[in-house]
Amino acid sequence: MPSFQTNIRYEPVKPVVEFKTEFPQSKHYTEQPNPIGSYLGPLDASLPNSDKVPLLFQPFTVKDLTLANRIVVAPMCMYSSKDGFFTDFHLVHLGSYALNGPGLIIAEATAVLPNGRITPRCAGLWSDDHIPGLKRAVDFVHAQGGKIGIQLAHAGRKASAQAPYFKTDASEFWPEQVVAPTGGLLWDHHHLTPRELSLSEIQEIIAAFGDAAARAHKAGMDTVEIHGAHGYLIHSFLSPVTNHRTDHYGGSLENRARFLLDVVKAVRANFPAEKPILLRVSATDCVEHLEGPSWELEQTVQIAHWVRDAGVDVLHVSSGGNTAQQKIKAVPGYQVPYAERIKKEVPGLHVVAVGIITNGKQAEEVLEKEQADLVAAGRTFLRNTNFAMEAAVELNVKAAFAQQYSRGRTIHG
């Protein structure tokens, strides 16, 4: 890994601050004897290979985090916050997954600074005031035996956009504070033109990622995921399509990766060493015939080595999002080969595959072929919060139900 110099000083993780929630767990939560979604045996012991536990429903451990199964709810923007606050919607939204058995839930892209939100309705974690609402959802997930993380993000040049379900008043946007590695390069005509970040602003954003990681720990998060994909700020530093800087944050791959690695170091220094850190990346910009280079899989493989050495434990592999010129053929499993390549070439780094994972047999095949260690789904869970339990039935698995839902089990699962 190249040697990077930085002037940032990282503070050690502070003791957890206790935040009281409106509904204390001891009084209002029913204890689950087994984590929801954990393997209890075969549904039908007479079927061939019924004594073999499918990989998808085998526990997975990284550092001190053990998941009941290998199904991950990918982070998905809900555009349901005001001033960054988590609300009752988030409690119900995240809680509904906890009641239906995925091994890990990752809460939506959550801005580390106000101007890092994609829209005025996006979640934030730039203030201690955001912790109690988030902790309420975390406590509920934990009461079901589930595990939860949060995606820490800065939207960069894709910030200050209109939320899909709201007509936001113009006063709520921040056109002068839309920032990027290089100014003047707007994503498309629906987005604002960003200005170039100064070196001091870059340091402030790096520190904000570290501060947000500390707040995530105080809220009880089991893990954090750094958002380095989909054309948001970290990705736009990595890609030569969007990074034309001539200082030590631009030019060579080592320089373009410096911002990401500084963020990783800040997060690692402010999140307990025993808890894992995930990083989501776009393996490629998915562009052809551009004038000049773009972000490609070979560079992703290289930075995967660097981030592993800097403190990332799990790489969550996506693609695209950095330019409107992208060409993506979205078919079931279309991003899995990217995850497979990284898993094979970067030992010691766990990998999450994502990209139109729609059923249990498909997810199991990804694991059987050793293309990834975990399998994530996003829109599939929006269509069907019961995806993990239905995957269990497909694979002849009797998975643990929430006690309150156990009367709904049939002879078929």
Helix percentage range: 25-40%
Tell me the strand percentage band.
Answer: 5-15%
Cα-to-Cα separation, first versus last residue: 49 Å
Q: Order the strands across the largest sheet as they lie in space.
A: 4-5-6-9-10-11-12-13
| Poorly predicted runs | 3-27
Sequence of secondary-structure elements: HEEEEHEHEEEHEHHHEHEHEHEHHE
- How many E strands? 14
Description of the structure:
The protein has 413 residues and is of the alpha/beta class. The protein has a single domain, classed as Aldolase class I (TIM Barrel, Alpha-Beta Barrel). The chain has twelve helices and 14 strands. The chain has helices at residues 25-28, 88-98, 131-143, 199-218, 233-238, 253-256, 258-269, 297-310, 336-345, 360-368, 379-383, 387-394, and strands at residues 39-42, 60-62, 65-67, 71-73, 104-111, 147-153, 179-180, 195-196, 223-228, 277-282, 314-318, 350-353, 374-377, 397-399. Strands 4-5-6-9-10-11-12-13 form an eight-stranded parallel barrel, surrounded by seven helices. Strands 1-14 form a two-stranded antiparallel ribbon. Strands 2-3 form a two-stranded antiparallel ribbon. Helix 8 links the parallel strand 10 and strand 11 (314-318). Helix 2 packs parallel to helix 3. The longest helix is centred in the middle third of the chain and has 20 residues, at 199-218. The radius of gyration is 21 Å and the shape is globular. The termini are far apart. GO terms for molecular function: FMN binding; NADP binding; NADPH dehydrogenase activity. Keywords: Flavoprotein, FMN, NADP, Oxidoreductase. Its cofactor is FMN.
